[in-house]
Amino acid sequence: MNGTPTPSAALPKPPRKLKHLLTLVLVILLLWGSAHRIEASFGRLFKGLPNMWDLIAEMFPPKWTYFDNVVQPMLDTIRMAIAGTTLGAIVAVPIAVLAASNMVRSPWIYQFFRIVLNLLRTVPDLLLAALFVAIFGLGMIPGILALAVFSVGLIAKLTYESLETIDRGPMEAMTSVGANKLQLILFSVVPQMIPYFISYVLYTLEINVRAAAVLGLVGAGGIGLYYEKTLGFLEYDKTNAIILFTLAIVLAVDYLSTKLREKLL
Amino acid sequence: MIELRNVSKIYPNGTKGLNNINLTFGKGEFVVVVGLSGAGKSTLLRSINRLHEISEGDIRIQGQSITAAKGVQLRRIRRGIGMVFQSFNLVKRSSVLRNVLAGRVGYHSTLRTLFGFPKHDVELALQALGRVNIAEKAYTRADQLSGGQQQRVAIARVLAQEAQIILADEPVASLDPLTTKQVMDDLQRINQELGITTIVNLHYIDLAREYATRIVGLRAGEVVFDGPVSEATDERFAEIYGRPIQRDELLEVAQP
Question: ABC transporter domain spans which residues (chain B) (predicted)?
Fold first, then answer.
């Protein structure tokens, strides 16, 4: 500022590169170690290449006429995703409130609900579906329930995390006008949360459409059943038709949901 | 109307926010509380409607102890005390009207407020907006308004609340000089026309002299001045602040 150069000793030294280097070494070690333990090797990958090629060759051309058979199950898949997401979204609302530390005073309560949410998200959806199939039998109901449980875990977690960052001012104002706890939530929390919540529900719907497509593998309804059928009969051209169909649906849902979410936030 | 008896507040970390405060505010007074930041102005105001809990003493609002009140009773007392905040505390995504109507929730059950307000309340809210001259903004989103306008919406919320007392915690601290005047004028007009007891925390001492009927000076959580504006001379202010008045404590000088 005053024209005299600062002595070089006073200049801050750049951070040392050693830490990055050690991280890289650690990652490589972990990768190599893991591959070794599960007996993965490039040799086997190369041996499998011709098989892979055969499979792809059999997949083409896709059997487009098979579409007629799978339109209904595909619609069912989307319906399952919508029903499961909606059900999960409804249940997620009170749980998100109970898991947010600025809504509930007692750490015992919000920590409990957080653990529940973590548990819900740890169980893979296919396993959930298999469990529900065992309870309710084959069909769409177990699929819907599996997606609903998964949705609760995801939506409630995302919601409570943004719930904790909302502006406290309006909450204080509602306390000062003599509102009770529910009115406070209704007038100061809900209007702040609605765009986020809808965005999370749409995001979960995207994921659920993809998940619903494979739930049929364990008998939980939807297009997944047809994957299993066609694969079982080695009709790879049909499988390919379903894959492309699923891809188109997933892309469409993703596009719509992304556009909607852009508008919201 | 408002009585504070032997009120002390000690924060969990041991600092004394308020130290044995005894004050009585009468109906229709326009009181301005002055003092350095950290003197306990905000703590005092927030103790009156119990946004902050006090450690000792008793605060009575129209004869009822808010310190001892619980549940419905506490909410009833709070309903009669409107509060205006430095940061307006509006829900930015909601319409102006909805923000003002929020002032009415204390009069209704949760279910009633869930399914919309009675016509009477909507009229009341629009009248309140009219009183602060922004009725035409009723259906605008709150975040589309300027700071001064947002603060007037917050004042309208207090009016719709039909409060007998208004507490204003640094209501103009985030406004420019022109809108500061407008907001202070609104508060003064409401005080004079409706006879609402008004207590305002202010940083600028010239503003305090211009609007107050009574000035309370706080220093380190204690009342060091309490009297009419005529007695609040520069020398007395210097005592309140514990040092001579500085230029940035005068609105006219600090922001020409």
Answer: 2-245
B:157-176 residues touching chain A, CB 8 A cutoff: 157, 161, 167
Q: Do A183 and B110 touch (CB under 8 A)?
A: yes
Residues B113 and B223 grouped into a single domain: no
- Of the three residues B134, B162, B190, the one that is the final residue of a domain is B162
CATH class of A61-264: mainly alpha
Q: Nearest by CB to B105, which of A172, A177, A191?
A: A177
Enumerate chain A positions whose Cβ falls within 8 A of a Cβ in B.
Answer: 167, 169-170, 172-180, 182-183, 186-188, 191-192, 194-195
* Residue B145 in tokens: 């308004």
Q: Which two tokens stand for residue A250?
A: 């997933």
Instruction: Write down the domain spans for chain A.
Output: 18-58, 61-264
Residue B85, in any domain of the structure: no
The four Cα atoms A59, A64, A70, A74 give a dihedral, to 10 degrees, of 90
Q: Cα separation of B71 and A178, whole Å? A: 10
Residue A50 amino acid letter: P
For residue B5, tell me if it sits in a domain: yes
Secondary element (H or E) of residue A254: helix A236-264
- Same domain, residue pair B168 and B246: yes
Q: How far apart are CA A148 and CA A80, in angstroms?
A: 9
List the Cα angle B10/B11/B17 in 5-degree steps: 60
pLDDT under 70: residue ranges of chain A = 1-9
- Amino acid present at A150: F
- The per-residue pLDDT for range A182-191, each reduced to its tens digit, is 999 999 999 9
Report the domain count for chain B: 2
Are B131 and B14 part of one and the same domain? no
Q: What gap in Å lies between CA B50 and CA B165, rounded to an integer?
A: 14
Token couple for B196: 């609402």
| Residues B90-140: tens digit of each pLDDT | 999 899 999 999 999 999 988 888 888 899 999 999 999 999 999 999 999
Cβ-Cβ contacts under 8 Å between A and B: the total is 76
Q: List CB contacts of B97: < 8 A, sequence separation 6 or more.
A: B122, B125, B126, B129, B138, B139
Domain containing B145 equals 90-162
A contact test, residue of B48, B105, B161, B164 with most A CBs within 10 A: B105
Ramachandran angles phi, psi of B10, nearest 5°: -115, 125
Phi, psi of B91 (to 5 degrees): -85, 110
